[in-house]
Amino acid sequence: MKRCAQFKFKSEVEVSSHVPASKVTSTFPFNLNSSRNPISYLLSPSRRGLAAAAVMALALTAAPSVMAAPVNFSGSTYTQDFQSMTGTTTATAASLTGGAMVEISGLGGGGPSGWYTYMTSATGNRWLSSDTGSSNAGGFRQLVDGSSPTGRAFGSQGSGNAAGFYGIVLKNTSGSTITSITISFDAVMNRNPSTTANPTAVSYRISSTDVVTSASTADGTFANSAGTWSTFSTDLSFTSPSSGTGAPGTQAAITPLFKIATKTVSSQSVSWPNNSFLYIRLSETDDSGSDASQGIDNFSISLPATVHEASFL
Ligand SMILES: [Ca+2]
Ligand SMILES: [Ca+2]
303-310: which pairs have CB atoms within 8 A and are 24 or more residues apart? Predict the structure, then answer.
């Protein structure tokens, strides 16, 4: 009995490795062959339209994905230092959609997957793919400094037209409910405010709803109305300094990135079901005067180390 490999696209188009050469009507636009099993496909005239669509769909599937994608958290420690981002000078501001979750990986600057902005004000040129701290343009941005290698972080500078939230969304892919997590990050800044120390509140919620990237104020976003938001048992919120580096005053660029504090919560009790989502958001409010540029760096999330009790008989 002759064996052959066979594939089906939505039960409409058959792909076979033993089609007679005389019946072969086309070749794939990409290589599915192996040296032992060259693959071709056979189309009946009535199915060519369907087949073309199926092949196009497969080709699109094979393309690199730029879809919004929360970070899969399997239980292994996840870290993010934003050092894979690009740009060393202050970029021209690009458009950022307001009222929607926007993954920064789809914006300029090469941001990582799973990190989002949620600007509550209107759409506008409020994404700076890199900013040395020299810009007074309100908006979300990559914070960079003049160090070698360049220090990089993800943050914002509030204004009347640029406020809202930014942060990360993670999906529990561990296979079971997670009951305890440890989170740590550095709060950093590269431009001090003009008149008032700027606060950044940090809160979280767990939801079965995946990220919604269309305009929405409902579940699946960082909006207040998405659901009930909680602060961590050790509050991770921070404020720019009231004196010294980063204090209100000249609103000058700061290099290297100034670390306001390392914020850590250990063994935070949660009930995070498998395949559900953990939303962690940082706030950007429009404070009096010109705002600070500050944000998050060196983020990590992990499961607390298991404690093994030893007993001696
Ligand atoms: Ca960094
Ligand atoms: Ca602010």
Answer: 303/75, 303/77, 303/178, 303/180, 303/181, 303/182, 304/180, 304/181, 304/182, 304/266, 304/267
* Torsion over CA: 74, 80, 83, 84 (sign): positive
What average pLDDT does this structure show over 27-39?
Answer: 36
**The model scores a pTM over 0.70:** yes
117/103 Cα distance (integer angstroms): 7
| Cα-based angle 146, 148, 149 (whole degrees, multiple of 5) | 110
Question: For residues 184 and 300, is the Cβ–Cβ distance under 8 A?
Answer: yes
Distance from the CA of 297 to the center of ligand 2, in angstroms? 17
- What is the average per-residue pLDDT within 48-63? 39
Q: How far is the centre of ligand 2, averaged over its atoms, from the C-alpha of 157 (Å)?
A: 6
pLDDT of residue 310: 54
User: What span, in angstroms and rounded, lies between the C-alpha atoms of 120 and 207?
Assistant: 20
Question: What torsion, rounded to 10 degrees, do the Cα atoms 177, 182, 186, 192 define?
Answer: 70
Taking the centre of ligand 2 as the mean of its atom positions, its distance from the CA of residue 183, in whole angstroms, is 23
Domain boundaries of the chain, sorted by first residue: 4-62, 71-312
Per-position b or e across 76-87, b if 16+ CB within 10 A of its CB: eebebbbeebeb
**Contact between 48 and 26 (Cβ < 8 Å):** no
